[in-house]
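Lab manual, section 2.4: Encoding a predicted structure.

Procedure: take the sequence of the chain (367 residues), apply the prediction step described in section 2.3, and record the output as structure tokens. A sample record is shown.
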Amino acid sequence: MIDRRPLPTLRRNLLAWFDRSHRPLPWRANRDPYRIWVSEVMLQQTTVAAVVPYYERFLTVFPTVVDLAEADEQHVLRLWQGLGYYRRARHLHAAARRLVTEHGNTLPDDPGVWAELPGVGRYILGAVLSQAFDRRLPIVEANSLRVLSRWFASRLDPREGEGKKWVWAAAEAVLPRKRVGDFNQAVMELGALICTPDNPKCGDCPVRNQCAARRLGLQAVIPPKAARKETVAVREVAVVLRDGNRLLLCRRPPDAGRWANMWELPRDVVRDGESEPDAAVRVAAERLGLGVAAGVETVAVRHGVTRFDITVSAVEADRAPNQKVRLAYYTAWRWADRQSASDYPMSTSMRKLCDELTNPGRQKRLF
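Recorded output:
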């Protein structure tokens, strides 16, 4: 149940606070739906501080949806490099092309159109259309689900099941008739600055008198903590093949998961009972059609992706003379030196490996 009695005062107080205290973020400069859309896609699962420089660089290169639609996907991925969750960039690019093809350079005020675009779910739909066109559409993300749960002292888990249904209903119920986009932003801003996961600043909250969790002393336990998922350790090998001071780089296929269409040293998961050098020999044979002699591991990087703790070990390898690369997995390959490698979009971990392996001051291998 949602108590609607405090809502008029809550809306008024929250919007007044937002007008006084909101952060001057670059996507708040105007109501341009394209700029709002790009920001919301970047902000998914990423912090504001991390997004701002990427956003400003991206908008400098692609200032309009037409510029983005006409760009090559590799260029888009290069600008996204380091921001992670690269599927967001591919979906954004594909959606821009579809919008321009069907609607020219004007982004439509039409939920039906947006709902059919790749990468646009209920959150992006509500965020863009409420902020750009003041559509009365709700949003729920990490900050707002916490704020809403505390306002109404809901003990349900808002991330799943009945709790997820409830929090979307609550997000819609609290919306004002006007300034919907500002209100949605204000809820998120309150969660980011005041109604934080731990030690919320209730004394500074503009709607503390309308908050049921504060009144009941439950703000520390609402919402319930998300269950911690067990971390899975993954070992991967990256094969280092050299041509003078150049490394062999390969482009992943378009259906290759989170790093689709991005470039890397030939790599794969190390199988049970397999050493890294043995895995390097197998990867070269299976994915490049090359017979190689593998040496020892030279450098490794470690990174986390969702619940996976991944260690990528680079193994130097020598190929027999006159062998030609015969791709069986990748879609393209290139020899790249330290400077030209920067032209290819890579994951952060792969970029670290390539930078280290092409470092002119690095000690040469000893075999």
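Check your result against the sample. The first strand starts at residue 232 and ends at 240.
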